[in-house]
Amino acid sequence: MAALLISIVWPAFAFGMLLTIPVLKVVLRRAAGGLLAGYTYDMAVVLLAIIAAALHRARQAERHPLPIPPRVIIAWLVLVVLIWLRLPASANQAYGFKKALIFSIFDTCAILSVVLMMVTPRDGRQILRLIVIGGILSSMALPLFGSTIGSYEGARFSIQGASPLGVADLAANAILILLSTWIADRSPKRTLLVVIVVPLSALAIFMSGTRGPIFAIPLVLPLIFWFYRRSLNFQGVMAALIGFGLIAVLTAYLVNPSYLTRFSGDAVHSGLSARMHMVNVTVRGIVRNPILGNGTGDTSVQLHGVADAEGSYPHNHLLEVFNELGIFGMIAWVTIMATGLAAGWELRKPEWDNTEAKFIGVALYACFVYQAIQSFKAGTYAAAYMQYFFCFATIAAHELRKRDLQIWTMNQQLFMRAQTPLTTAHSATTPAP
Predict the structure, then answer these.
(1) What is the phi/psi pair of residue 150, to 5°?
(2) According to the model, what pLDDT value does residue 342 have?
(3) Looking at the predicted structure, is the pLDDT value of residue 365 above 90?
């Protein structure tokens, strides 16, 4: 009830809870016990986000259509329908049913909440703030309290059983948002945040033992630099980033040398070999039924060879969708991702320079590209709600900016038309010299 009241007054609070589910859920579950078992907390939070966003939209003076192109909506609905239609074909319908529920209900609610929330580009700023706060808190938790509240979950280090991947993703999002906004506005306040939080977040990633962000973040940073190339001191920024990285690596080694074990050559090679095996198995499944796919959840059976396998995936969303939903599902998934990538790429144009829309859009786009890169090496498409969240947020921010530009252009044209008769009349009544 308290969360609902806060979200009504401050809608972004609900999105902060939504984006920190991987960490906050476990902490609260320990306090509430069985009350938050299963997906109870996840659904409560995502419904809270929808309510807060709907109330936020209802309070606006003007009524605007949802800022999402019809082709994206159609593509998402195609995926939802295919997930249920192809479920009977799966050799693991129990796991497929679970994936279908997560994607068609939870993931759909997550993207609906951000679409409802984005009424103006400025609304994206509130979401960015909450992401950074969540990233800062999770980044501080491991380095400062890891020895007392942390534990090893397999090869990774976790906060009280929270997903190490979630902790690392929150820290990575904080790094990307802070660097993107700092490059756009190098104020003393932002500089201080970058100096303190970026090394701390990098340290948290190393401590979590999650390799994905270490490889994905360096691929996203050049994209941010490209967007701000007309106003960026490239050498200075690169020197600062290299310094932050070295500080994080050195600190991780001094705290506990074992934190860097997951990033050794042998560990990386072993991880790549395992993933290549999963990719090969998945490709064989695609070849077996490329048109309709093998059914929702069938990938886990192919990977393990047993009908009751659960929680297994090829660590490649595109191949997993293709394998389970066929060519039509793959086309729908690619349509959504490609629209998000194209929308963010528009920010490179000069007309976006020195605008708040670019300030917000580049940060959202950086997080989306980071999640898109991660989709080729980790997780399953059914649980990739953060990737879809940032994809739809990027598309919405772009569509809102396009709408504002169209309104501005129309007003300019109306103004010029209104001035034309006055100019003509003045010329007709003015005697020639």
Answers:
(1) -100, 165
(2) 95
(3) yes
User: Sign of the CA dihedral 87, 88, 92, 93?
Assistant: positive
* Domain coverage including residue 303: 2-417
* 422 located within any domain: no
Q: Which residues, 6 or more positions from 247, have their beta carbon under 8 angstroms from its beta carbon?
A: 199, 202
User: How much is the mean pLDDT over the chain?
Assistant: 80
What's the token pair of residue 363?
């940060």
| 429 within domain boundaries | no
Question: Among 325-334, 404-413, 415-424, which stretch is predicted with the lowest mean pLDDT?
Answer: 415-424
Question: How many residues comprise the chain?
Answer: 433
The answer to whether residue 323 is domain-embedded is yes
Residue 170: other Cβ atoms inside 10 A: 30
Domain-located, residue 154: yes
Angle between helices 188-208 and 164-184 (to 10 degrees): 160
Distance CA 46, CA 371 (A): 19
Distance CA 320, CA 381 (A): 7
Residue 198: predicted pLDDT = 85
Q: Return the top range by mean pLDDT from 156-165, 253-262, 358-367, 377-386.
A: 358-367
- SS3 labels along the chain: CHHHHHHHHCCHHHHHHHHCHHHHHHHHHHHHHHHHCCCHHHHHHHHHHHHHHHHHHHCCCCCCCCCCCHHHHHHHHHHHHHHHHCHHHCCCHHHHHHHHHHHHHHHHHHHHHHHHHCCCCCHHHHHHHHHHHHHHHHHHHHHHHHHHHEEEECCEEEECCCCHHHHHHHHHHHHHHHHHHHHHCCCHHHHHHHHHHHHHHHHHHHHHCCCHHHHHHHHHHHHHHHHCCCCCCHHHHHHHHHHHHHHHHHHHHHHCHHHHHHHCHHHHHHHHHHHHHHHHHHHHHHHHCCCCCCCCCHHHHHHHCCCCCCCCCCCCHHHHHHHHHHHHHHHHHHHHHHHHHHHHHHHHCHHHCCCHHHHHHHHHHHHHHHHHHHCCCCCCHHHCHHHHHHHHHHHHHHHHHHHHHHHHHHHHHHHHHHHHHHHHHHHHHCCCC
Report the pLDDT averaged over residues 402-416: 72
Q: Please tell me the total count of domains within the chain.
A: 1
